[in-house]
Design brief:
The protein is α+β, with helices and mostly antiparallel strands and 775 residues long. It has a six-stranded mixed sheet. A six-stranded antiparallel sheet has the order 20-21-17-22-23-24. A five-stranded antiparallel sheet has the order 3-2-1-7-8. The protein has four domains: 5-142, Beta Barrel (OB fold (Dihydrolipoamide Acetyltransferase, E2P)); 151-341, Ribonuclease H-like superfamily/Ribonuclease H (Nucleotidyltransferase, domain 5, 2-Layer Sandwich), CATH 3.30.420.10; 388-600, B family DNA polymerase, palm domain (Palm domain of DNA polymerase, Alpha-Beta Complex); 616-766, Topoisomerase I, Chain A, domain 4, CATH 1.10.132. The model has no long low-confidence stretch (mean pLDDT 93). The radius of gyration is 31 Å and the shape is globular. It is 38% helix and 23% strand.
Length: 775
């Protein structure tokens, strides 16, 4: 027997399997010295029962073996004493859960999996330090590993019918392509390592050999779970092969078998899809196609000569130019690798795991993250969590949005409450446990009033301190310029409000969410009154931001000073206001932006000011930088024509130049065919084409494209590029009709121009003698 060892690493996987004396917990780690698997047998399946139902449970358990009821110093949210029920037999545990449901007995926290409970009760999240002996886990504690797990960027190429052509691998230690076909010498055009294999089955065996030799901690790619790994699994089954990519020799598990938030699970390895993780990190792109994202982030796209006929080029190269196909395959792998590096996406994944406790390759899961962080704190306060109920929850009010004062302004400041909802939780002690404790408190001086009948205990609470801890960690991350960690903490903190009002959360209660949002309403209204009491004018407010007009004749320097004075005064106001209530304010108003020019449009066809739509201009080094909110230029379903026109129009207007000649020029250019490349719509299909009852333009174009191609090229999730012609909506790649220029004048130029024209007391029909609008 070996002596005990100590290791530190990232948790790549956590599972449990039934054993003779309880669950065996299995953890896969990435350590600096390589992968490590440790296990802990004999862990009980645990839930909590009400003391009042103890006799019924004992009668039902009777002479069965392997169960134990233990008194614990805890109570339910209904303030009833509870006992811990521990079972060693998995089958009996499943039967007990069914019995509880059938009889209406409480079995609290029965859904918490043993491998999760072991970690959360020790405050272990993504990083762990373990003491182990012969792969047996002896002890564990939280840790902060400094190394990065090893990755491989994986990409496959195949025919339109799904037969595999090649597999590309790009890692820190090896970059190569496995290609089906007869070996052929390179002609020197491409510098890459390529191995030829006899057939598809040999290609799959080569894949398994590569993983056995290089053994990466994780797989990254573009739609890597839903496409690459799924097709590899399908083709392996076709050849009677096991796609044993797991470090324990197991095959990948997909969809429902993978668990929530994970499309594919491979034992001992992460599976990270670039698209999903960019979205999780709040990156936004008009298109998430690899070529589009790589071009925007890296300035370089896919190695393809004809993107409109990419599949035809792939099939042609497989039969006639395998080295070109290999170059294309490996380039895709490289682009994904570089996108992960450029965005520090792996660092974000690790930081998020350290904050949430979720599996490293699980996306979503804000409710699960809240449970992981909050549950052990709840237990240490003498409570167990309630069960998830299916009760219909009345919706909580949304964020505060005030009526705007439309018009063109100079010198508008944006004053923004920093993390408003988390700050409200901290300041007003909003907490699920605190609300339960308040219900039993007779001393009103120990209570804080909430909304919709909620009250919170001043002494018994956990969530405010958790939020404060996260806020401090975020400030430290920002000072250390650790953007991935800062972003991960921000996302987690902001998710807590939504969780408390979500039907999928065991702690949901409309009183909790309303005590946050309605408090936010009152804070925004009171801050507006205070600001206007200082002589400024608030022209708009939205959730956590106030737009303050200081006057058109003020200098930028004076506005800067006034902005700093306003936030300092408002913060002092809230400190004093909460201090009078015996509370400590965590509210912090910040001076975020100074717009030299600002335009708030009206609702189309009305004199009422719009909401969530505005244009501002910030002067930087003598030039104006435009900021659009809710306007056509920031919406992906408008054409480049609308975006470029809007940029040009507001630039002219804010610079004091006449806009009518500019608009006439754009109209003339469109009608003369000088802007044809700007007339392309691009829109994503949200459903399969057969599921659309109506035939909107993008659906019409996609159906035509599939008809022309003779196959289902466009389906749910596809992005279609199309134009409007005399024949209607047609796919860009095969449009036959003449472009309908009057459509673009009426539907793209006019909506952009009208807000400005209305502000200068003009209208669209006047631009060229009434010609516009007749078609």
């Amino acid at each position: 027997m070996q002596s005990p060892s100590f290791s530190q690493g990232w948790i790549l996987g956590r599972e449990q399997r039934p054993g003779p004396d309880g669950a065996e917990l299995i953890y896969w780690l990435s350590t600096e010295s390589g992968p490590l698997c440790v296990s802990l047998p004999g862990q009980p399946y645990r839930g909590f029962i009400l003391e009042s139902e103890q006799a019924a449970w004992r009668q039902w358990l009777g002479a069965r073996s392997g169960w134990q009821l233990t008194p614990v110093p805890a109570q339910s949210f209904a303030r009833q004493p509870v006992l811990s029920l521990e079972l060693s037999d998995h089958s009996l545990w499943q039967t007990a859960r069914q019995q509880a449901e059938q009889q209406g007995w409480a079995l609290l926290e029965a859904d918490i999996r043993p491998q999760e409970r072991y970690l959360m009760e020790r405050f272990i999240r993504a990083g762990v330090a373990v003491k182990h002996q012969d792969h047996r886990l002896l002890a564990a504690r939280p840790a902060n590993p400094t190394h990065l797990p090893s990755l491989v960027s994986l990409d496959i190429e195949c025919s339109r019918h799904g037969e595999l052509y090649s597999i590309g691998f790009y890692s820190a230690t090896d970059q190569r392509v496995l290609m089906v076909g007869e070996p052929s010498p390179s002609d020197g055009r491409f510098s890459l390592s390529m191995e030829f294999v006899a057939d598809e089955a040999a290609l799959l065996r080569g894949l398994l050999d590569w993983f056995e030799q290089h053994d990466p901690d994780g797989i990254i790619g573009w739609a890597v779970a839903g496409f690459d790994l799924a097709l590899l699994h399908k083709r392996a089954a076709h050849h009677g092969l096991r796609l044993a990519l797991g470090r324990d020799g197991s095959e990948p598990r997909f969809e429902q078998r993978a668990g929530p938030g994970r499309d594919c699970v491979i034992a001992g390895r992460l599976v990270l899809d670039g698209i999903e993780w960019l979205k999780a990190a709040f990156y936004q792109f008009d298109s998430y196609a690899l070529d589009a994202v790589a071009t925007e982030l890296l300035g370089e796209g896919k190695a393809c000569d004809d993107s409109a006929h990419r599949m035809a080029e792939i099939e042609h190269n497989f039969h006639h130019d395998k080295w070109a196909l290999g170059h294309y395959n490996l380039k895709d792998c490289e682009l994904v690798w570089r996108i992960f590096e450029h965005t520090r996406l792996l660092e974000f994944v690790l930081a998020r795991g350290q904050m949430t406790g979720l599996e490293l390759d699980r996306t979503g899961g804000s409710v699960a993250a809240f449970t992981f962080r909050y549950l052990p704190l709840l237990h240490r306060s003498g409570f167990v969590a309630p069960d998830l109920t299916d009760t219909n929850i009345p919706p909580s009010p949304g964020g505060y949005v005030m009526d705007s004062r439309p018009g063109l302004y100079r010198n508008v400041l944006v004053l923004d409450f920093k993390s408003l909802y988390p700050s409200i939780i901290r300041s007003f002690l909003i907490d699920p446990m605190g609300m339960v404790a308040a219900e039993a408190e007779a001393d009103p001086s120990l209570l804080v009033e909430g909304y919709r009948g909620a009250r919170f205990h001043r002494q018994h609470h956990r969530l405010p301190a958790l939020i404060a801890e996260l806020a401090q960690q975020r400030e430290q991350a920002k000072q250390a310029k650790d953007q991935p960690l800062s972003q991960a903490i921000k996302i987690l903190m902001n998710s807590f409000y939504g969780v408390l009002g979500a039907a999928g959360c065991r702690f949901h209660d409309p009183r909790l969410a309303s005590s946050i949002t309605l408090r936010g309403h009152d804070i925004m209204k009171a801050t507006r009154e205070w600001v206007e009491g200082q002589g400024a004018q608030v022209i708009y407010g939205d959730t956590d931001s106030l737009f303050v007009h200081l006057g058109d004749d003020k200098t930028p320097q004076w506005c800067q000073q006034q902005g700093q004075a306003l936030v300092a005064g408002a913060n002092a106001y809230w400190q004093q206001s909460l201090q009078k209530q015996g509370l400590e304010s965590a509210l912090e108003l910040e001076f975020e932006t100074q717009f030299d020019h600002f335009f708030m449009p009206t609702i189309r066809g009305s004199e009422q000011g719009s909401k969530k739509r505005y244009v501002g201009a910030i002067e930087q080094q003598g030039k104006l930088r435009l900021v659009f909110k809710g306007m056509e230029t920031v919406r992906s379903d408008w054409t480049p024509l609308a975006r470029q026109l809007q940029q040009s129009l507001y630039q002219h207007w804010f610079e004091g130049k006449p806009v009518t000649p500019l608009l006439k020029q754009w109209i003339a250019r469109v009608r003369d065919g000088e802007c044809d490349e700007l007339l392309v719509y691009r829109k994503r299909l949200r459903r399969d084409l057969t599921d659309y009852a109506a035939n909107p333009p993008h659906v019409q174009a996609a159906r035509l494209a599939n008809e022309h191609a003779g196959r289902t090229r466009y389906r749910r999730g596809s992005r279609i590029a199309y134009v409007i012609t005399a024949l209607g909506a047609e796919p860009l790649e095969s449009a036959r009709g003449k472009l309908d220029y009057e459509h673009y004048v009426e539907k793209q130029i006019r909506p952009v121009a009208e807000p400005v024209l209305a502000a200068i007391n003009s209208d669209f029909e006047q631009l060229d003698g009434g010609q516009i609008g007749l078609f």
